[in-house]
Amino acid sequence: MAAGSLLSGRTDSGGGRQIPPISGEEGFYSGKGDGTIKGRLFGFAIAAFLLLGAVLFVLDQNNRIDAETVNVSLAGLPDSFAGFRIVQLSDLHGKTFGENNTRLLSEIREEKLDLIAITGDLADDPAQFDAMGALAAELTQIAPTYYVTGNHEWATRAAPALMEILEKQGVHVLRNEYTVLRRGEDRLVIAGIDDPNGPKDQKTPEELTEEIRKAEKDPFIVLLAHRNSGFDTYADCGIPLTLAGHGHGGLIRLPFTDGLIDTDRTLFPQYTNGLYTIDGCSMFVSRGLGNVGRTFRLFNRPHLPVIVLSPAA
Ligand SMILES: [Fe+2]
């Protein structure tokens, strides 16, 4: 018997006829079984590596703050308010960035600010109210802080309790009302509206702007409003600049779209990120900072815009 036959197969006792190897035998002798196990382990390691990478990417997309400075040119802005800087916090949904929001606060402290605007959906649950009060206490130390409600505060059925907590920390809560900032002879009106999820008999944006125009001579209005979808109304009112949120950037941002899905589950929504203009009236929309329920962000990091006002040339 040739030595090679011992390894390559068996012979019968009669005439040296080749008998094919028993299933698995060839692998046992040739070491291919080891290769299969190694191959499977390698495949598993690659899959685990890709899964870990995907998890880390999604965590980064939902937790690393995107601080953006946006220059907004506005016709009619009083000269003294050129360079006025507003940081907008929108749609936090009770999220905290680091213990006691240290990461969020440190990003805000890096900016030289004139005003902090919180445009609604600060909390989804009364259990988050104390943390939001602690955040408010720090914000009001940095700059005058203004707040309007979003739909989620009203959904908690405890919105007045949150507003009380915020006001105790020095936040100016604007419920279909306004305040006037003065620099010499120049004035800037900061107005704010309650979310439509609030009381049904509340003042409308049209009524509020009419009231402002009756009381103030040539007012330059910056409106804080949670809903991005109200842009047509804000423009109809002739409001030069509105700061809004609510759209969460369309959750997943895709090329050539304004996000994939709105918070009301509309596909390919509009007005979810950045500056929009209708008939000389502008609306800046923050993509927001937090998430609702099991939603998550992709290519759409938590947004912390700093809006810098400048007079249009
Ligand atoms: Fe909202």
From TrEMBL:
Domain of life, source organism: Bacteria
UniProt-listed InterPro entries: Calcineurin-like_PHP, Metallo-depent_PP-like, Metallophosphoesterase_sf
Ranges annotated as spanning the membrane: 41-59
Region: Disordered, residue numbers: 1-27
Keywords: Hydrolase, Membrane, Metal-binding, Transmembrane, Transmembrane helix
All residue ranges annotated as the Calcineurin-like phosphoesterase domain in the record: 84-248
GO annotations of cellular component type: membrane
UniProt xrefs under Pfam families: Metallophos
Listed GO MF terms: metal ion binding; UDP-2,3-diacylglucosamine hydrolase activity
GO annotation, biological process: lipid A biosynthetic process
Gene3D superfamilies (UniProt xref): 3.60.21.10
Protein name: Calcineurin-like phosphoesterase domain-containing protein
